[in-house]
Amino acid sequence: MSEADIAIVGSGATGTLLAARLAAKGHKVVILEGGPNRALSDLVSSTVWSRRLKWGGSPVRVAGKDPVAFPFEAGWGRGGSALHHYACWFRLHREDFAVASLHGAGLDWPMRYEDLRPYYDALQAEIGISGDAQLEVWRPPGDPYPMPPQPVFRQGQLIAHGFEKRGQRVAPLPMAINSVAYNGRPACIQDGWCDAGCPTGALANPIAIYGETLQRHGVETLYDASVLRITTGASGKRAQAVEYVNGQGQRRTLHAKAIILAAFAVQNPRLLLNSANAQHPDGLANSSGLVGHYLMSHGAVSLYGMFNEPTDNHLGRTGGQLFSQDSYRTGTPGPYKPGYTFRIGNALKLADIGGIANARVDLCGAALTEFMRKAALNLGTMSALCDSLPAVANRVELSPEKDRHDAALARVVHSLSDDTRGAIAAATEEGKQLLSAAGASEVWAAPPRTEHLMGGTVMGKDPARSVANAYGQTHDVENLFIAGPGLFPTCGAVNPTFTALALAARSADYILAEWSGLRQAA
Question: How far are the Cα atoms of 104, 393, 507 from residue 503, in angstroms, in the given order?
Fold first, then answer.
């Protein structure tokens, strides 16, 4: 394959949605994926095996006071990071789109919630979300969920009692996981192995949702394709082709009328910066100088309580059972104060992030053995996800080091702000009190961490202060688009996947409507 209407770099959540939408309208779409091909039947419920789904490409160097956990956040191979995501599908709140206007800090989105609401509503009907919109008193307006909420097991019930005793509210976690059979996919079996991938298809990963659609409409995916750069025409205003190295080590070029970068919040800036040329000396689509900047990560902390009765903590979903946003940042104008979301009752396994062993990294030997015996039966957990503002100093830049194809590696510099650190401290203290109120005999918190990667190619109305417009179209290169959470100007205090997909669906509509202009020869 050397020509396509549309070339998409990355086979994750947004890349597959865009491929499905655009191919269904008759366009010849080719996806380039750096990792291997996979099927749902390849997924194995094992914390060791699940690491194969995490990043396996060129090394990413990290720096700053709070280095990001890049290998855990990223994906490798078909489905990208959405193959191991937890499917907590929240909507951003109305106030999240206007942080700068409300609080004089951060950035505003080039749209409002009402612009994205139709895409939230349509996607939840198409893909399926389980939840209870009426109990989500914090949720902005939107259609009811198409499926009833997921079951709540003893762990969730116990912790919810602590919230109730303190006068705080909880609701079923909205999840892109089937609680009942939906659109040909089965209901979740509640075995808590979401982090290792879902072989049944109950969880809405890209293979389960769009695999058949891509095949039906003739989308070709080039696996083990390491993309090196995007080339432009003589004027520099239009992208011409994707240069890549195939699995046999051969350099190849794929020409396309439009190119979409959906390779994640770190790899997209790396590719743009590595694509510098005479017309774009500082990197492709970088006249603002902001490619790679305004990278964001949520601050997060896991909280644990040891109960005096079995919690059935092996049951449920990795993302949790319930949630509370009583401490979410409000839309009241005034000084910026970040809020947070509690996700309650995460399913626990033996190891890896959030696992039983990792709950007490200070223990070893006989003490760890005794802890594991008790925790396997009686441990309860929840986590807090904290709002974070974009900072220009948080960035993706090119490292002096090169990969095996002589392309510069990415270096990610990231530090949490004092505001976010304050939110983590407040969430930690409140979380301990809630677990104690729930009846836990011992409570503690894990060290703070980062969670999710967003920004780096932010959207905005002003080309001098952003990389792309509200449809992901780069300001400088008219047929070059960006997809994914890298577009986010702010991140709220919710998991980003649902919003990233809503933006991608909106971009697909725009590309289809503007195709006659986009397809003109470079």
Answer: 25, 25, 6
Beta strands in 387-458 (DSSP E): 395-402, 408-413, 442-445, 449-454
Q: Record the tokens describing residue 430, joined without a space.
A: 């409140």
Selection from 168, 86, 165, 174 nearest residue 130 by Cα: 174
Helix (H) or strand (E) holding 7: strand 3-9
* Separation of alpha carbons 298 and 286, rounded Å: 25
**Mean predicted lDDT score pLDDT of the chain:** 96
Residue pointed to by tokens 């947070």:
340
Coil, helix or strand at residue 480 = strand
Measure the CA–CA gap between 171 and 151, rounded to whole angstroms: 12
Cα 162 to Cα 111, 171, 216, 382, 427: the distances in Å are 38, 14, 50, 12, 15
Number of domains into which the chain is organized: 1
Which residues partner with 29 through β-bridges?
6
Residue 239 is inside which H or E element, if any?
strand 239-245
Q: H or E stretch including 181? A: none
DSSP 29: E
Query: Which helix (H) or strand (E) is 474 found in, with range?
Result: none
Radius of gyration of the chain (CA): 22
Pairing of strands 29-32, 220-222: parallel
- Domain containing residue 179: CATH number: 3.50.50.60
pLDDT for 434 equals 98
The torsion angle over the Cα atoms of residues 487, 492, 494 and 495, rounded to 10 degrees, is 20
Residue 48 has pLDDT above 90, yes or no: no
Q: What are the tens digits of pLDDT across the range 142-178?
A: 999 999 999 999 999 999 999 999 999 999 999 999 9
For residue 8, give both structure tokens.
Answer: 């998409």
DSSP state of 229: E
Q: By residue range, what is the domain housing residue 196?
A: 3-518
283-329: per-residue pLDDT in tens? 999 999 999 999 999 999 999 999 999 999 999 999 999 999 999 99
Angle of helix 418-437 relative to helix 154-165, nearest 10 degrees?
100
Adjacency order of strands within the sheet including 60-63: 60-63, 408-413, 395-402
The closest of 476, 478, 483, 485 to 505, measured between CA atoms, is 483
What are residue 404's phi and psi, to 5 degrees? -70, -10
Q: How many CB atoms lie within 10 A of CB 219?
A: 24
